[in-house]
Amino acid sequence: MELIKRITRGNTRAIARGISVIENNSDTKEELIDGLYPFTGKAQIIGITGSPGAGKSTIVDRIIQFERNNNKKIAVIAVDPSSPFSGGAILGDRLRMQTHATDPGVFIRSMASRGYLGGISAATSGAIKVFDAAGFDTIIIETIGVGQTEVEVIELADLIILTLVPGMGDEIQAMKAGIMEIADLFLVNKSDIDGADRLKSEIEYMLMLGPENDKAHTPQIKLVSAKNNSGTEELYNTMFKQLTLFKESGLLDKRRKERIKMEIEHIFIDKLKDILNTRLNLKENMGIWIEKVYNREIRPYNFVNKKMENLKKENLL
Amino acid sequence: MELIKRITRGNTRAIARGISVIENNSDTKEELIDGLYPFTGKAQIIGITGSPGAGKSTIVDRIIQFERNNNKKIAVIAVDPSSPFSGGAILGDRLRMQTHATDPGVFIRSMASRGYLGGISAATSGAIKVFDAAGFDTIIIETIGVGQTEVEVIELADLIILTLVPGMGDEIQAMKAGIMEIADLFLVNKSDIDGADRLKSEIEYMLMLGPENDKAHTPQIKLVSAKNNSGTEELYNTMFKQLTLFKESGLLDKRRKERIKMEIEHIFIDKLKDILNTRLNLKENMGIWIEKVYNREIRPYNFVNKKMENLKKENLL
């Protein structure tokens, strides 16, 4: 596959096309991912999440600068809420993309949070493989972290950063609950405004209530003002220090293997769905079954259990 | 099953226990749901979503009052972000639950957005069946509507209401993108504060850009001040007028059948997962496979495809 070769050489247009193949679930998707697979596993994947307005973009921009100063290649996958009608990503990052348009060491890609066959998590996982195989040292996944889906996306990262800002209200902070549980680094942005220290104390208190962590696990808290570029270098160093710790303690391997497990299971389920469609002739039968369930002639579990038993009897399952 | 009988008689403790059976995915879950199934299909299900601070609770309280004045029984399922550490729901509704504690015609239940085997959507779907079979006329599902998961939860409703407030910022509004697409009723709350009319115009403009709707589909926009109880009665009447329209046009049936389809598919997939676990002896083999994929000895799709072919050859699939 010519595309694979070009991606591994870092060709920008090939990278973009590779991601499109994954997003569109094209026929060549399996071949592409399998072909890229031997070239993956080198990149460090960092997840950044936080409410809109928490300053994620500015923070990511700072990280990009530090990485470029260290001569590292960096890719950003920004997972945006989908547009109400077009289905495309709406927040976009056109401005940021323009800033770095002439630098082949930076690649920023927006992906819509909905509308992919197999889900945004699978699509992001594929995009990560493309960037990884293309030789990017660091891949940032950026999300507005709310809901189970976004938790699944952010769990594709080796290190998870949660961005919070003082004064966003308890409820909005609470929305991040699912993410708080898995964050490795709490970033209190806009540290120059009132309440930053209180927010830090609140996080500390919350962590104290949580389960005990070993040294590699202990979540860090950093006060940063991304706009004023204060605390950002320390943040940058902390990120990579934590990643080193994770590597040494085996936590990184553990996380990556957990992701592989999820991926294998997902592929199996997709294949099983195909088989079920064929064996049960779902296309023709589903409509009839729906009517019967709708009319309360059959009951959902009883019905499915019977169908499965029949397939087994006929040696079709 | 004694529990089923007691639920259909509307026994409060039995209802609570039924929902726990579903939440905990107990062994009796299938029997319970199948047993309740013939008694379902009567309740009207209304989904209310919106940012924290949009005033959903107050609106739901108003709806409860109107329903009780009309002698209707009403249940509320509040889907809350999960607690960082306990895993339970955190926003809770203890206060509201106390207000209505002595009224058997009102049942408010909080459910955490994460932590259920099968997902919050399946758990909510089960809880709806319990309330439906127990004779509740109206069931409200309340969510902070962001992300694919919450879209799936809110799509369990016959009518979807999106609550917005002026001045929450474009980005926060944009977070609702996935919901905007499917909302039947846009509720601009806090209509007494500045910007309510502008927000209404923005929604109208957005709807104009969207796909054309038939009469039953045309989303409504209502300005309400829930706190001052202004516009709430009109909102209440509009909700039920819309539901009547949906019924007459066949849209309600269409939506309910779509939900049945999803449910049948989910049950099939769950059963298939069980079979896969046994046939492939996943418990013993998964660890070995993960190591091989991790070491890049095998490639994910190639590996799964081969395994599936082998099962087929051996007539095990």
Short description:
By secondary structure, chain A is α/β, with parallel strands linked by helices. Chain A contains 14 helices and seven strands. Chain A folds into two domains: 39-249, P-loop containing nucleotide triphosphate hydrolases (Rossmann fold), CATH 3.40.50; 266-313, no CATH class.
What does this structure look like?
The structure is a homodimer of 317-residue chains. With 317 residues, the first copy, chain A, is α/β, with parallel strands linked by helices. Chain A has 2 domains: 39-249, P-loop containing nucleotide triphosphate hydrolases (Rossmann fold, 3-Layer(aba) Sandwich); 266-313, no CATH class. Chain A is 53% helix and 13% strand. Chain A has helices at 2-8, 12-23, 29-36, 56-69, 94-99, 119-133, 147-154, 170-175, 177-180, 196-209, 232-249, 251-279, 282-294, 300-313, and strands at 44-50, 74-80, 106-112, 138-143, 159-164, 185-188, 220-223. A 7-stranded parallel beta sheet of chain A has the order 3-2-4-1-5-6-7, with helices on both faces. In chain A, strand 6 (185-188), helix 10 and strand 7 form a beta-alpha-beta unit. In chain A, helix 1 packs across helix 2. Mean pLDDT of chain A is 86; it is low at 83-90. Chains A and B meet through helix 3, helix 7, helix 8, helix 9 and helix 12 of A and helix 3, helix 7, helix 8, helix 9 and helix 12 of B.
